[in-house]
Amino acid sequence: MAAITPDRKIIDILNEKKAAGVKTCLSLEYFPPRTEEGVKNLYARMDRMKGALSPLFTDMTWGAGGSTADLSLELALHAQKTGHVSNLHMTCTNIQAKEGEEDVDPKKAIHDALQAALDGGIRNIVALRGDPPAGEEEWKASEGGFACALDLVKYMREHFGQEFGISVAGYPEGHPNAISEVADPSTLTEAEKARSSSFDGKTYCCLDADYKKEMDYLKEKVDAGSDLIITQMFFDVEVFKTFVKDCRKWGINCPVVPGLMCINAYGGFKKMTKFCKTRVPADLDAKMDSIKDDAAAVKEFGVEFGVKVCQDLMDSGLIEVLHFYTLNLEKVVYGILDQLKLSDNALALVNEKDAASMVAKGSAWARVGDEVTCEHGKGVVDELLPDGSAVIVISGKDDKVTMAKGAYQKVF
Ligand SMILES: Cc1cc2nc3c(=O)[nH]c(=O)nc-3n(C[C@H](O)[C@H](O)[C@H](O)COP(=O)(O)OP(=O)(O)OC[C@H]3O[C@@H](n4cnc5c(N)ncnc54)[C@H](O)[C@@H]3O)c2cc1C
């Protein structure tokens, strides 16, 4: 096997590992933290996690609407220099004009960012359309820019040839834009039922006809030159297995890497699953509700659940890589991998005292449903006001207080 150096493509290393009999590799995803202190702490954490887990590759996300463009690149380059096989996310809404700058040519901005990544030795890119920037509901293409991830993949192959390994996103339950509310759930087919979700008494599903369009489009993204699919988070392994089998039916033969969201906190889990309309099996939902007030029990359960999911995936023979959305935290990831014997007492290395500094750049200071502390005690965010202040319901009291941005802190 050739040396695994950071300037190699993921797909080449993965193929070599498979040929050498390695069954399961790991990969880790991080996001750019908001503060300089957070960045410093993240560097230390990435180093620790690399030492403990030897990930095949390390992803760095690109902030919604290009809000963290410079920092994402800086972090991915740092990862590259410190021995990670860096997999930099890049979206079609790439870079915002800086103060004093004229409008940015969106294609040139993306080209320049790709060139800077390549010049710094990065050989792996996740080509994405991107989410709308904070505060905006719908994603809009910039004028003269790319309309979707497929355009970006085509552009990269046209202008950069085979310099980059390319990953794209896949959605086992359908992309959220293709998931609609179902008026009468009794009309759903068995396949639709299996990927449907329910929130607040409503049922949502990517209907068969829309799912077919999603798969046709995914095939186009892969045929345009993608090497790898990394999936959206899921909590029902059966949905993922069906998705991989469907990929094969559609003639999509590249590795499909499951994106594993670690369960670290009740508020975050609820918020994210509702936002993405993710299917949450009834027993998982009930379990989470039963421990919602016990942060330590949620983390413990996060490990137990993660172990079950990973074991099921490995037993299925459908995967080669377990990709962890770390949320820039390590305890749950180590807990899962130690129990699976994919790491050796990594938990002994945990240092999450700095967890409060791992808030994403560009994100709100807290979101509705988050647990926070302020001078009045612990509470839960009930409403966020446009200036960043939060209406907080203080625990054990009926009182609501409004606290300015910075006067309340998220509890981790
Ligand atoms: C693994 C992973 C990593 C991510 N990382 C980031 C990140 O770092 N930064 C960030 O901002 N967001 C990230 N996202 C979120 C992602 O940007 C959003 O989900 C976004 O809404 C869609 O991106 P995409 O690349 O899947 O889009 P696309 O592949 O462009 O698809 C989006 C939707 O449009 C439809 N569509 C688009 N073009 C066509 C067409 N020509 N024909 C038919 N249908 C079409 C697709 O079927 C799909 O429903 C990530 C998502 C995943 C799964």
UniProtKB/TrEMBL annotation:
<dbReference type="GO" id="GO:0035999">
    <property type="term" value="P:tetrahydrofolate interconversion"/>
</dbReference>
<dbReference type="InterPro" id="IPR003171">
    <property type="entry name" value="Mehydrof_redctse-like"/>
</dbReference>
<comment type="pathway">
    <text>One-carbon metabolism; tetrahydrofolate interconversion.</text>
</comment>
<keyword id="KW-0560">Oxidoreductase</keyword>
<dbReference type="Pfam" id="PF02219">
    <property type="entry name" value="MTHFR"/>
</dbReference>
<comment type="similarity">
    <text>Belongs to the methylenetetrahydrofolate reductase family.</text>
</comment>
<dbReference type="InterPro" id="IPR029041">
    <property type="entry name" value="FAD-linked_oxidoreductase-like"/>
</dbReference>
<keyword id="KW-0274">FAD</keyword>
<dbReference type="GO" id="GO:0005829">
    <property type="term" value="C:cytosol"/>
</dbReference>
<dbReference type="GO" id="GO:0009086">
    <property type="term" value="P:methionine biosynthetic process"/>
</dbReference>
<dbReference type="GO" id="GO:0004489">
    <property type="term" value="F:methylenetetrahydrofolate reductase [NAD(P)H] activity"/>
</dbReference>
<protein>
    <submittedName>
        <fullName>Methylenetetrahydrofolate reductase</fullName>
    </submittedName>
</protein>
<dbReference type="GO" id="GO:0071949">
    <property type="term" value="F:FAD binding"/>
</dbReference>
<keyword id="KW-0285">Flavoprotein</keyword>
<dbReference type="InterPro" id="IPR004621">
    <property type="entry name" value="Fadh2_euk"/>
</dbReference>
